[in-house]
Amino acid sequence: MKNLGRFSLITLGIISLVGVMVCAQAELTGDEILDQMGKKGSLFEEKGDVIFVARFDLVYTDGTEGSNQFKIFSKQGAEGTEDPDRMLIYYMEPEDIEGTIFLSIVPPEEDSRMWLYLPALGVVKELVSESDKEQSFAGTSLSYEQIGGGFDFSDDYNATRLADETITVFIEGVEEDRPVYVLELTATPEADVDFPTGKMWVDQEELLPLRTEFANEAGELEQVMEIPALGYFEGELIPEQIRAQNPLDGSATTISVLERQREELPGTLFIAENLPSLDPEAYGR
């Protein structure tokens, strides 16, 4: 898996972002915690079929600000099958990008495939090369790979467990101190990643990385991701807000989930050839 270090989380996602409870927590090693976290997928992946509306608030490298809004369709493959995880993002706002569509398909144990539909040109383009996938998603500080690629931290990093800490987050609008595992990450010799070292704060109950930091080859902190707010959906505790920033260039992206609903989605929705005819209002009414 390539370039996991360019914001492994989410690279959010999204991704089932809800873990399982762990027995004998105090005895777990760093590598065992990574294994327990398992594959997280993309920033907006959720169990089964879900439709999201999300706002991306942006701070650009020159200090100016902007905002995008998207309608996101997520269809997770059934566990234990060869069904892929699928995600489609329809660009709603601003007007100059409305109608653009990003499609990601992540088969089990295989690299993700991604497409971009550009309505002004009337073309569907597959993002094949790593350089294509590493381009900025809709002008944000996140790449297409970070938004739509599947990943597993344990594939590319070894973890050393440090002393446990607590992190304060908002849950349903109320501040709560959450016990976290603290892991020091080092890329394995065979890993093809941009960031050789990192640090992660993992919620002990949900096995959710509430904060991740990654440093570049020069040892400079370059990628930071945190989850400042969580909420409940169908009894599960999941992220309501995700914040990504690059301390070196000052860019930042804050993702806020505005709506979330369960609706069965047809597989034909996630076929690249069908993107030009997609009517987003046909879903999530």
Structure description:
With 285 residues, the protein is mainly beta. It has a domain of 162 residues: Clam (outer membrane lipoprotein receptor (LolB), chain A). It is 7% helix and 44% strand. A five-stranded mixed β-barrel has the order 7-8-9-10-11. The longest helix has 8 residues. The termini are far apart.
Question: What is the structure about, briefly put?
Answer:
It is built from 4 helices and 13 strands. The protein is mainly β.
Protein topology:
Layout: H1 30-37, E1 49-59, E2 65-75, E3 85-93, E4 101-106, E5 113-118, E6 123-127, H2 130-133, H3 144-148, H4 153-156, E7 157-171, E8 174-187, E9 197-203, E10 209-215, E11 221-233, E12 236-245, E13 252-262
Parallel strand pairs: 7-11
Antiparallel strand pairs: 1-2, 1-13, 2-3, 3-4, 4-5, 5-6, 7-8, 8-9, 9-10, 10-11, 11-12, 12-13
List keywords for this structure.
285 residues; outer membrane lipoprotein receptor (LolB), chain A; 4 helices; 13 strands; 7% helix
Element pattern in H and E? HEEEEEEHHHEEEEEEE
Structural class from helices and strands? mainly beta
| Rg on CA atoms, Å | 18 Å
Say what the CATH topology of the domain at 25-156 and 229-258 is: outer membrane lipoprotein receptor (LolB), chain A
